[in-house]
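Friendly challenge for the regulars: who can give me the structure tokens for this chain first? No prize, just bragging rights.
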Amino acid sequence: MILPIVAYGEPVLRKVAKNVSTDYPKLDELIVNMWETMYNAHGVGLAAPQIGLPIRLFLVDTTPFSDDEELSKEDQEALNGFKKVFINAKIEEESGNEWDFNEGCLSIPDIREDVKRKPTITISYFDENFKEHTETYDGLLARVIQHEYDHIEGILFTDKLSSLKKRLLKSRLDKISKGKISVDYKMRFPNIKKGR
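First reply, four minutes later:
Bragging rights claimed.
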């Protein structure tokens, strides 16, 4: 089932998410719905807060990135077929010199900006079968994971921009929160009154 993606301004996007228990109701169904929602919106990642749930769950499928001809062969190979569910994730370490890359977000449609992030991360998490993993990623894989991880920490990519850039984007962000934007996927906006 395709779920509405919550827009910038929804309070749930600012909450530090809670851990998911092994007996979380209908978790398998939720994960299936999140995949369907993400693919419908042409995303490469989706976090539970983006569908209104303040829980530590996100998923990533970077395969659509892998056919970007501007990427190195090595990056294309790393991205192709990378599909994972991250439950109760914790970034253990971030290292290297920060680098810029243009990011966007399904909750903040039509805004893309360069964001600085560390190139290498080590992350511990549980998969959809609650099997524990600790893995190290770098490059674009690390970036996509960091972006989704930020969502479960109540952080948006726009928070990482300079104060000048934030001021320049303020009116566009306000329009998004009021639903004054056209998107080709289901969204829920915080500042639209019910029944109107």
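DSSP finds four helices and nine strands in the chain. The radius of gyration is 16 Å. Your move, everyone else.
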